[in-house]
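Possible race condition, two jobs.
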Amino acid sequence: MTIPETFIQELIARADVVEVVGRYVQLKKTGANFSGLCPFHSEKSPSFTVSPTKQFYHCFGCGANGHVIRFLMEHAGMGFVEAVHDLAGQFGLQVPEDDVSPEERARAAGRRQKQATLSDVLEKAGEAYRKHLRESNTAVNYLKGRGVSGEVAKQYGIGYAPPGWRTLAGVFPEYDNPLLAESGLVITGEDGEDKRYDRFRDRVMFPIRNVKGECIGFGGRVLGDEKPKYLNSPETPVFSKGRELYGLFEARSALREKGYVLVTEGYMDVVALAQLGFPNAVATLGTACTPEHVQKLFRFTDSVVFSFDGDAAGRRAARKALDGALPFATDVRSIKFLFLPTEHDPDSFIREFGAEAFSRFVGEATPLSRFMLDAARDGCDLGTAEGRARMTSNVRPLWSAMPDGALKRQLLEEIAGLVQLGSQALTDLWKPAAAPARRASAPASSSPMDDWPPMPDGDWEPSWTPDHAPSEAGGGGESGGNRPFKKKWEKGSWDKNKGGGRWGKDKSPADSAPRGRSLPIGRSDVAARLLLSNPAAWEALSQEMHGILCDLPGVHGQLFAWLDSQVHEHGAQPWVALREGMRGHPFEALADKVMTGPDGAPIDVGADLAAPEAAAELRNVLDYILDGHLKAQETEAIAAAGTDPHALDRYRALQARRRELLLRLSPARNTS
């Protein structure tokens, strides 16, 4: 989805940053500006300033700054598109979307209206539940018995659903309103039965809020030992238990103050921990921890601690959480697993041993790397070849799910030591088998791509037109857009065999194809432009390609590594959001260069290429980058042939991969 930048600028100009920030931070007028305690770090004296004239906020303590959309993204944990829609909705504005049909736009508007209506219904029910709690001595005594104070109950909006079958009929006079069933508050009869009754009865009620603070569902706990102990709202248009976390809205400020989030298994764990000095706890909602949960948590903190019971069920839950966390285990994040003694939950542990002991226990939690290796070696006898082979098989999908970085590479060395294989041998074992060469005439002693002209990262022009006619001489041409670059050679600079070469005598590639916009940039620049224009394409790349791009020297590698983290944390964002997020980074100038046209105006990322053409161009440029990487590995393999008995096997596999690349990049040459 592409949101025009003109609309974004208009929205920022129309919004009152003081009003929006003031919903989350208590502001006091100080001269021409407003000040308050910074919501992004813990402080006792206000250093957070909001300027109504500049429509800008800045903290002199931690350096946080930006406009109103950035505030919603950073503080409320919204994605860019979500923040724009949220802000636009406050002014009754329709967000224009360049690549969305009118029908889809109307459907999206209908969904947003339905979500707002359902949230209003749920909020009204929550108010009724809180009123019922004040009137129920039984429910109040239950909470007091669990050590929950009135202040904490108010903070989390806890209420009580009385035991009657149709209590909500007194709250909603139109008890047959379909919205009550659609929101999950009321259960209706099957097969057209005219039967309706409250879903939640005789339960302590815990409102589930999204990151904006809107009520999207409930969790209810019985007061005794009845089953089920916990009951959640069903899946609705506003609630999905695989994406939401209980207590995240209430814990946002505490996450920044404590420096980590504690993920627990139930609502009462969250509330009890807040009561005992750990307001940075959240809970999954009766489901295993998913990648969506982990991604959402890393919007607020770089450190996650999963807390589980020490029994078999707790270990199984931890194993599922590991699967969800591995794709986000970058070098700058901390992921740990805390296993409590089987006889304790967090509440009972703190009450018996104290908050300080629990803090030490959290600090000594098992790091992700250790838990991953323990999970992989479980049931494997490493004293036998069979046991080591089994661990190798177990650990491969876990290790492969991790993003490339120092942590992943260190773990490769550690895994190799445990299974008694060299790290290179292990890497070779895990590589997908190379496709067989389809060109029998290619000599085994040399690469068929080596006689192609070099492609330096120099003065190159992307070929925006994908279908180039063949050249007049030599029958080569650039058919099908499989060679997406044109070098500014002098005419006849590569006229191998005087007319039998790629372009023929006095023919340059620029002559063989229509000239597009003049933008002299290198291969890495082209890849950066295409990926910044369409960050969703990053997720479709292989782990190998991620590693190659992130390992590029200089600011190119830094830019791709930053993009990788942004996609993991926030999903695919439009260029305007990425541009805002990279301010002050060393690669900012590079990004501006590749995203700026020759006339000095920003590239219209939605207008340059149709999606299939952009995808084809990205594939081609990445294939050339991959070829350069493979060629360097070939050189390393030849150099190691004297000492490494596996070097020649690696060299042959690399040659086969390069031949496969040639078949993709030069179909015209391959069939000539």
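Job #2 (started ~2 s after job #1):
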Amino acid sequence: MKKYTIFFLTIPLFLYSCLHRQEDESAKKSENTVLAPINIQFKNRPDINSKFHFTERLWIGKVNLVYIFNGNDNDVFQLYPEKKPADITVLPKQKFIVLRHYVNHLDYNDYLIQNGDSVIIQYVSKKPVLSLINRAHQKHDLLVDELVRLQFDSGKYSPMASYLGAMAFNGREVLSNRSKLPGAKKMTPKQKEERDLPNIIKIKNQQYGPAVEYLKKENMLLDSLKKLGEISDAPYAYYKERAKYYTYLMDVETERITYQQITEVLSPHKPRQQSFPEPYYYELLESVANTHFVAKSDFFPLDDGTNRDYRQLYKAIDTSSVFSTDGRDYLLTREIKRIRSAFPLPEFLDFFTKYQQRVQDSALVMAMKEEFAIDFDSSRLETASVILSDAKGTKLTLEDLKKQHLGKVLYIDFWASWCAPCREALPKSAELREALKYKDVVFVYLSIDSNVKNWKKASIVEQLDRYEQNYLVINPQNAEFMKSTKLNEIPRYMIFGKTGRLLYSNAPRVESSETGILLTNLAVKKN
């Protein structure tokens, strides 16, 4: 059975709350406590109606259905209706993690899961149902979001989800207006933004009242459950804080709160004070940044959905007094990632120097250095050899690798975390690797990812993290071998013979029925 074991990098994810001092004390104690792994098992296939219909025939699906917030980081899991998800093992960083599971395209349930828990997720009547098999818990610890939605007869989506999903509803209005569709195809990104932004704000203002009422009923329900002893202290604290910060978020986006009031909410914040992650705080941070910095900055044609000069945004956030230190660090990290994706490497390196000097969370800086390790590695400029690195950072060349396996056939799989066809083929590759494990054949996986973190996460998901012959190519853009073999597209497969000679520069794909036969025949040959 497939199993994911998730290791998390350090990114801040805590929000101070003076209302829950007992939680603060437990968080401090947990720092010196050995935390047991959390095991999450899926009982059946995810039968979730995650489609959002723009028109009767036009819809968009959602596969990012599970989010796990673990102390200082978060991870996303894609679930597909045709197959049962792999089990997940989480190594928790605090007493609790937050497991967020979407129940449709916009609504989700948040669950507070304790270290050492064994969780079963079963899909019943197109909804996820969670149960804990290792310990007793209060009656409604895992049912709060479902109970709140039952209070409203609001159609498919809750008022809160309808507010947060304003962009989707705007898309529905645009795509259902046939008279505007022909002209929309000719619009520039700036013209589309000028069309969409006022309507999105209008939709949010329309949904504001019902969403506020929704949060009020959630608070009343939580207080009632607490009084009845039907919810534990930690879930109660989590949902109360989430409701408070979602109210702040809506007030920010609909301009019902002044800039000074925002500062009073955000600037006193201190990190790592709760015993659970607080993703809603970071949603508020991004909302403030988007409303008061992104929306008010100059348009910059990047065609990435945001279309802003992230260098300008970085400087504006850096000099702002509205954020606490950790809030500023979080947003500067967001912008440094965007600068890397949108601008030339020399500019990124220049901003990263400023980033290192400004950001006070040393663990966060180290995480960014690891994520963009290739950018700081001079061997990325090497042309004569293909430079490889394993997950620990140990380097070798493709020639070294061939020498290590002289006398064996190498079947090399070039892939990347962002390449869907590559990843779809990996289970078949694992099957063939197992079938040929007693043959003189070695399967080698070479990722051309430019982001180390993405490679490591994908390797964990695809169960390559414990396979020894899994490497990251440091210099795919500059290595002469990659150019001479015209490795411009992936997935791509190559076969090297027992003497290290390249036999097939464009070998059959792993799904092909001839691949196993070809490798078997090559393995029995002397040369």
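The CA atoms of residues 225 and 231 lie 6 Å apart.
Logs attached separately.
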